[in-house]
Amino acid sequence: MLLIGGYADAWLTHPLANYVVAPDDLAFPLKSYSAVSAVGYRASASDSEKVVFEDGGNLYIAQPGNIYNYRFLTKGSHPSWSPDGEWILFHRDSAIWRIKPSGENEEKLSNSRYAETQPSWSFDGTKIVFKRIISPNREQLVVADPDMKNLKIVVDIPAYADYPKFFPDGKRIIFGSNLMNEPSILIDDLPNSDLWYVDIEEGTMHRLTTDGGLHATVRKWDDLIIYSQHFVFPNGIVGSNLRWIDPETGKNHSLREGYIWHGSPSFDWSGNYLFISVAHRP
Question: If you average pLDDT over residues 76-102, what whole number do you get?
């Protein structure tokens, strides 16, 4: 289930200052939250009025407030709504595509012999970033214009480079990777991924977490990062904590813990709303 919530005033002046009442408190630090849809995950929105999400290989558009009021958009996955609301990038058949929210002007953008996926917009809408799979043990992150011109490879590593997102300054990209981690026996290497960021111009990479991290999203006005941290329950099921990184100290903190799936967090472009996918504890 996808959730949307508006932040309490405390978030605007002192982010996350009062989110915990007790060490095991699961209260999410939102003034309110409501279901967007009864199904789906990997949500993306240009604002709080409409959201695009993925379910079963299809993309749907929903309006918050009515969990059954959503419409089919197209087949695909990994949607990313542009800041101006005009285009939705997505992945289909190993390629990057784009489509109007109305369902018109669907167009394939990729022209590569390699699989390309997980597209995302820059905050000013002038660039996109996506993942290119060279081989099972090598991946790249590529920055390009929205029409796929002026491509620049910014990451080329012998590991995963998952779910890239721009920082608001447009100079850095955050992503998850199993680089320097022990091999994992779990699907998609989820528990062994950590968060990294890369400087686009210099190509230098910096590690943000050492205890797990994936599916990061960055808030517009202060670079606050919210992300998923995967782990394994005693029964072998992969779980997910929701955590945040303080932009001033660089330290990460617990936000909500102990779910089978509590991930794919995504701020809208204003930074006022956070979309997440949620499942219950085992």
Answer: 97
